[in-house]
Amino acid sequence: MSYRAEYIWIDGTSPTAKLRSKTKILATDTMPPTWGFDGSSTNQAEGHASDRVLEPVFTCPDPIRGGDDVLVLCEVLNTDGTAHVSNTRASLAAVTQEFTGQQPLFGIEQEYTFFEGTRPLGFPENGFPAPQGGYYCGVGADEIFGREIVEQHLENCLAAGLEISGINAEVMPGQWEFQVGPLSPLEVSDQLWIARWLLYRTAEEYGVTVTLDPKPVKGDWNGAGAHTNFSTKAMRESYTAIIAACEALGEGSKPLDHVKNYGAGIDERLTGLHETAPWDEYTYGVSDRGASVRIPWQVEKDGKGYIEDRRPNANMDPYLVTRLITDTCCSALQKAGLA
Ligand code: ADP
Ligand code: MN
Ligand code: MN
Ligand code: MN
Description:
The protein is α+β, with helices and mostly antiparallel strands. The chain folds into two domains: 2-86, Glutamine synthetase, N-terminal domain (Ubiquitin-like (UB roll)); 95-335, 2-Layer Sandwich (Creatine Kinase, Chain A, domain 2). It is built from eight helices and 14 strands. Strand 8 and strand 9 form a beta hairpin. Helix 2 packs across helix 3 (185-204) and helix 3 (185-204) packs antiparallel against helix 8 (318-335). Residues 109, 111, 170, 177 line the site of one manganese (II) ion.
């Protein structure tokens, strides 16, 4: 008896990495073992020494194949066992180790856009659809494009055991969002990568492509982001810690250090228009969707909770983003005696 394991990994494509996967048939009574691949075909090696190692780090049921089949998310290693340069998960694991006592949690809002051929799903063959306004959380065939795929993706994520917390239609036709979390930095990041893979894979069945392009249509159309919601135990208990975290993100070179790692093309999306703050200015505020970091109104009212970093692009790497936020905020909270 056997089962199928779909090994999934993040490649070395620059500036935005792509997902890759391949299938291994395994005997029923065995765990998915370490495996390998040709790194020269994924921008992860030169041709003359191209073997790279796939190290399983997270396994869940495969909702596409069903039965006993599984999805296996992997880290990419060199043959000497060290992390490959494209492997951003390894350093997140190291940083979070240091701060587990603060119990950091993340909820990530992944926005994305469906495309059919060269046009966003729902865009007419010639010209543009009606301007933005009615599409966000809309209903009806004139406003909603791709709901069948979105529902199937949600179904697949839930069957895989992923902690999806919601979905909604976004501001532009063919644009949608799902949320993962709240979970620890490693868990939310692993689950987001698997949820992304399931999104591409689910849409494939419908002949529709998915893009995480942060600005899929130029002009007066919203970009696609990945708002990253964050809290520590102290922030879930006190407003002083909420403010300390917002301040920490604005210290010295932090705003630029963060934004540089929040996804390629971030300056095209963070223009100061379309519910964004300019990429080179750092601000925070209550209920402020034009700030870099928003404190939700409920959090101010309760005097505790979480903050929303609105800057990350849809195409961001969650291993990088959650590492930076954890490091910046948890270090500052520790120094301030708020850990
Ligand atoms: P928005 O109003 O910005 O569209 P969403 O409902 O899309 O908000 O997303 C809010 C996110 O915040 C969800 O992913 C949720 O899991 C996350 N979240 C809720 N509470 C916390 C918390 N204490 N720490 C971190 N994330 C949280
Ligand atoms: Mn949202
Ligand atoms: Mn959104
Ligand atoms: Mn948001």
